[in-house]
Design brief:
A 6-stranded mixed sheet has the order 3-2-4-1-5-6. The longest helix has 16 residues. It is α/β, with parallel strands linked by helices. 30% of the residues are buried.
């Protein structure tokens, strides 16, 4: 007959202590990206935070009327605030903050970092592909400029970020891009604030 193994109280306490002291894996993986942002000179694409359910915007949507658009939920607003708090807690400088003219992007930017400059090339491309080539060209020119000092943050839409980078972001997820000059950039990685 085989005996049953039962760890003693000391072994159980040690195991529990190790589990509690170990940082979660995503936190460890994101530290090099936070360090890169702390050093400055990066471009940060962020998709707007969580919105009311749906895809695209309701029929009759107007940019000058937030009530006609899909907007942030309370959870989305809280998430946007947490993103800004994470930047401030780490001392990460944002030299310039650009946003799509859609209300959900403007609100994400404002809640995270403060007032932002509306920049049309960040406009939603979902169902609006007629301007895609022009918007991608303008975004590429802006994000590939080498910069000294802080970072450039661009608040946009999933469809718009994909058009330039090929990366599909979740709500409030960030894509860190290192400018290389001459129309080139390197994707450094993705960053999420829980």
């Amino acid at each position: 007959m085989l005996g049953r193994f039962s760890p003693g109280p000391v072994a159980a306490t040690i195991a529990l202590t190790l589990v509690l002291l170990a940082p979660p894996a995503p936190a460890l993986a994101s530290e090099p990206l936070w360090a890169l942002l702390k050093a400055g000179g990066q471009a940060v694409f962020i998709r707007h935070a969580i919105t009311t359910p749906g895809v695209g915007d309701p029929p009759g949507m107007r940019l000058d009327d937030c009530a006609s658009q899909r907007n942030l939920t309370d959870a989305g607003r809280a998430h946007a605030r947490r993103v800004g708090e994470a930047f401030r807690a780490r001392g990460i400088v944002v030299d310039r903050l650009l946003t799509s003219p859609w209300c959900r992007c403007i609100e994400t930017a404002r809640l995270a970092w403060g007032p932002a400059e509306v920049w049309t090339p960040l406009a939603n491309l979902y169902g609006r592909s007629e301007r895609q080539a022009e918007q991608v060209r303008e975004m590429r020119a802006r994000v590939t400029e080498r910069r000294a000092g802080g970072n450039l943050v661009l608040v946009s839409h999933g469809s718009t970020v994909v058009a330039l980078t090929g990366v599909s972001l979740d709500p409030a997820e960030m894509l860190i891009v290192t400018p290389q000059g001459d129309g080139r950039f390197a994707v450094a990685g993705r960053l999420t604030v829980p």
